[in-house]
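Q: Given only this backbone (226 positions), what sequence would you predict?
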């Protein structure tokens, strides 16, 4: 599967490179445009999966870029603005932006918002269910079945198991799981992941030898399929 491509549009090159660093670390491909004219041409040609678009740029500002892009593409757009007034936020949403982030921003929030918008705007390839030997996790019904029996499971435990099982053998750090399951607004201790994994293991212990919730020491966790 190809990596999602994120286009960063900002005339401040240091901001572009900072965002690129964090997005590439999270597994995204990143392209950069430093002015609105180049951005419009590159969006037409490259069809990125999401655009991070600064408002305050010379020649063609972000408002006009967003307006022109919406004439030919529904690519998700997150506006980057140094202004926090309600007018700017409403204007961006009225022009077809999907979200906005006010500068100065935390790069972790940018990454989390990119992931959240992609989740909202990318069609699911599969249904909201994953199944393995003696295990069925259905996120639509919030239901966990183990060896045919429904097991009472708190929502976050089930969401965590579904996220891991939907991406078998992929290793996630605790911070990645907090971002992708709890959301960027969660500021708690990453050890909450350890607690939830421990409880899930109690429910799944000895069910099957074909899969397991595995600790990757010094990194995090993965749903290992053998």
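A: Predicted residues:
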């Amino acid at each position: 599967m190809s990596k999602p491509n994120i286009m960063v549009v900002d005339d401040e090159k240091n901001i572009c490179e900072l965002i690129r660093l964090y997005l590439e670390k999270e597994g995204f491909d990143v392209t950069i445009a430093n002015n609105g004219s180049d951005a419009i041409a590159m969006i037409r040609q490259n069809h990125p999966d999401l655009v991070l678009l600064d408002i305050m740029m010379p020649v063609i500002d972000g408002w006009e870029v967003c307006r022109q892009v919406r004439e030919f593409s529904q690519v998700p757009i997150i506006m980057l603005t140094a202004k926090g007034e309600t007018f700017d936020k409403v204007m961006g949403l009225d022009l077809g932006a999907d979200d906005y982030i006010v500068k100065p921003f935390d790069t972790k929030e940018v990454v989390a918002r990119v992931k959240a918008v992609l989740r909202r705007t990318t069609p699911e390839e599969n249904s909201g269910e994953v199944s393995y030997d003696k295990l069925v996790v259905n996120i639509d019904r919030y239901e966990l079945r183990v060896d045919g029996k429904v097991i009472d499971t708190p929502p976050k435990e089930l969401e965590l198991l579904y996220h891991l099982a939907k991406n078998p053998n992929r290793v996630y750090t605790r911070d990645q799981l907090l971002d992708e399951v709890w959301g960027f607004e969660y500021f708690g201790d990453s050890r909450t992941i350890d607690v939830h994994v421990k409880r899930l293991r109690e429910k799944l212990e000895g069910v099957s030898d074909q899969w397991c919730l595995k600790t990757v020491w010094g990194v995090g966790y993965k749903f290992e399929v053998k």
